[in-house]
Hints:
Layout: E1 18-20, E2 26-29, E3 35-37
Antiparallel strand pairs: 1-2, 2-3
Amino acid sequence: MSERATPFYCPFCGDEDLRPADEERAWLCGACRRVFTVNFLGIRLPEGAK
């Protein structure tokens, strides 16, 4: 399993030209040149579910 979550598109412009950035777990968008990270926080179950 990879430590890097892979996004399919840029959350700012929607382009799909993404590359790993120099920073840890960061992605660079080739279209808008923004650098961002993706974090998985967990899964929340509905209240009352076991």
